[in-house]
Structure formats: structure tokens, C-alpha cells
């Protein structure tokens, strides 16, 4: 991992490359590690380190949308000491079932209660970042440059009718159905972290519990099907969590990893 002075030096070195598209790298996720005896069978063990703040060197800048499209692979400056992380995370977005549509139109408290009813909890912001960055602080779950084909993140945005969405009932259901461009869980097979967790970026935004000083305890991560630039960092803390429900907002659950084999996962 680069030191801060080294990062500045490398930034000068790579500045002439800004705007020049780097060679495309096809992402092939490693095999799913499968259930761990320390987690329930429908979850995956995530272990690694977390840095509160990280920086990368942009090597492909999109002027039209003012977004970085690729970073120099493997070059990161991290601020502060790493925090060891060990936890269990649902394989899929709630309801955590392969082939099912993710649940949407749930507020942060409703998502919290859904997880708690199953003996779990909402993931924290730091847990979500750790699972996405996969131990090497990568900007996207699949690597260092945007690839629109890996996750469900390249759909065209559709204008929504706020009144219909908030009205609920049949009008609300029809509006959600009209706007829906999500994929069923597991449909984008390559959109999987090395830990075996699917759809961390794209598909639906996910409620998490904030790990940083913020106005709201409930925040959103991962973007949705119309935000290909959304990566492992970039928390959305703009919405009041007790009232906000939206057609592209979902969640997933986490829980602490057991110190020994769980009854559900033990042979």
C-alpha cells in the first residue's frame, strides 16, 4: 500500500494518462467459498481489514458526467490504522433467496425489524465497505475500472411519480412495477465478491447502519440499476430514514460471526 508522499509522486506520474482509457480487464470472480461453519448457511463469512478513508489515482476521467471511470490498479493510500473485521453477510439482498426480486419500498426501521425477526441485523457501513473492497481496497466490487456488464447498473433512469409512490395501495404498486428494472438475486452471476456475496453494487441501493458521525443513523450504499459509477465508497446520507421508502431501495442483513461452528452450518 502506498504512503501519502508516494501517492502524490505516482499521481504526477499518471497525470498524463488522465482521459486515456486503460485496457479493459474481464472480471471473473473466484469460486464461491461456500458457507462457513461460523455463519448460517444463507450467509458468507467476511473477514478482512477496514480503513476509515482511502484514496486512489484516477486514470480515466469522464468529463461529461464528472466521474472517474478507472483507477490505477493496486495503488491506494489509506488513512489511519486498519480495523480487523469478521462478520457474516447475507449472500443476496433481502429476502436473500436466489431467483427472487429484492424487497423494496421499505424504510430503515422496517428493514431493521425484518432482519431482527430473523435473528440478524442490518449491516453497518464499515461492514458493507469491507465486503465490497475484498481486502485490497478496490474501488468497485469487481476491480479498478467500471465494467457495465458485471452488475445490474447500466439501465436508463426513468422519471417517477412521487405522489403515486407515496400513495401506496394499487397506485403505488403499479408505479413501482412501471419503474422496476431490477434483476432477480443471482441473475448477474459475475456480480459477486470474492467472499461470495452478490449484488453489492447495482440492482437496488441498500440500507445500512451508519458507522460515521452523520445526521441520520440509516444511510444507503451500493447505488442502483441506473448508476454504473457507484462503488464501494460513496454513502448516500441524503434521506430521512424513518419515512423514506423508494422503488429502488432495498437492504440485506448481517450478523456477528460465531467463534465456533453454528448448529445450522455444522456438519
State the shape.
Answer: globular
Task: Report the sheet with the most strands, covering strand number, pairing sense and barrel closure.
Answer: 4 strands, antiparallel
- Helical fraction equals 10-25%
What is the CATH class of the domain at 87-256?
Alpha Beta
Structural class: alpha+beta
Order of helices and strands: HEEEEHEHHHEEEE
Average predicted local confidence, pLDDT: 91
Q: How far from one another are the termini?
A: 39 Å
Number of helices: 5
**Per CATH, which architecture of the domain at 87-256?**
Alpha-Beta Complex
Counted beta strands:
9
Question: Could you explain how this protein is built, in words?
Answer:
The protein has 5 helices and 9 strands. Residues 3-16 have low confidence and may be disordered. The longest helix is centred in the N-terminal third of the chain and has 11 residues, at 4-14. The relative contact order is 0.22. The chain is of the alpha+beta class. It has helices spanning 4-14, 108-116, 125-133, 162-167, 169-179; strands spanning 43-50, 53-62, 67-79, 83-90, 121-122, 205-209, 218-221, 249-251, 253-256. The chain has a domain at 87-256: paralog of FGE (formylglycine-generating enzyme).
Question: Key features?
Answer:
9 strands; paralog of FGE (formylglycine-generating enzyme); 267 residues; 4-stranded antiparallel beta sheet; globular; alpha+beta; 3-stranded mixed beta sheet
Short structural summary:
It is built from 5 helices and 9 strands, in the order H-E-E-E-E-H-E-H-H-H-E-E-E-E. By secondary structure, the chain is an alpha+beta fold. Strands 1-4-9-5 form a 4-stranded antiparallel beta sheet. The chain has a 3-stranded mixed beta sheet with strand order 7-6-8.
Amino acid at each position: 500500500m502506498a504512503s501519502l508522499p508516494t501517492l502524490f509522486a505516482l499521481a504526477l506520474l499518471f497525470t498524463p494518462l488522465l482521459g486515456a482509457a486503460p485496457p479493459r480487464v474481464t472480471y471473473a470472480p473466484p469460486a464461491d467459498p461456500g458457507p462457513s461453519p461460523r455463519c448460517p448457511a444463507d450467509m458468507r463469512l467476511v473477514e478482512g481489514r477496514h480503513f476509515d478513508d482511502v484514496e486512489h489515482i484516477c486514470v480515466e476521467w469522464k468529463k461529461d458526467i464528472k466521474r472517474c471511470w478507472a483507477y490505477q490498479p493496486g495503488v491506494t493510500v489509506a488513512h489511519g490504522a486498519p480495523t480487523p473485521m469478521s462478520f457474516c453477510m447475507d449472500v443476496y439482498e433481502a429476502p436473500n433467496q436466489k431467483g427472487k426480486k429484492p424487497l423494496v419500498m421499505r424504510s430503515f426501521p422496517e428493514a431493521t425489524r425484518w432482519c431482527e425477526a430473523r435473528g440478524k441485523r442490518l449491516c453497518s457501513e464499515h461492514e458493507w465497505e469491507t465486503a465490497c473492497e475484498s481486502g485490497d481496497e478496490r474501488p468497485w466490487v469487481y476491480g479498478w475500472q467500471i465494467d457495465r456488464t458485471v452488475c445490474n447498473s447500466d439501465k436508463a433512469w426513468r422519471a417517477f411519480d412521487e405522489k403515486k409512490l407515496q400513495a401506496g395501495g394499487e397506485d403505488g404498486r403499479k408505479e413501482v412495477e412501471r419503474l422496476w428494472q431490477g434483476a432477480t438475486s443471482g441473475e448477474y452471476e459475475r456480480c459477486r465478491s470474492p467472499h461470495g456475496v452478490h449484488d453489492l453494487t447495482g440492482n437496488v441501493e441498500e440500507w445500512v447502519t451508519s458507522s460515521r458521525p452523520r445526521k441520520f443513523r440509516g444511510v444507503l450504499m451500493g447505488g442502483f440499476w441506473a448508476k454504473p459509477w457507484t462503488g464501494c465508497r460513496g454513502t448516500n446520507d441524503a434521506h430521512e430514514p424513518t419515512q423514506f421508502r423508494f422503488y429502488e431501495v432495498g437492504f440485506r442483513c448481517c450478523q456477528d460471526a460465531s467463534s465456533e461452528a453454528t448448529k445450522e452450518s455444522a456438519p
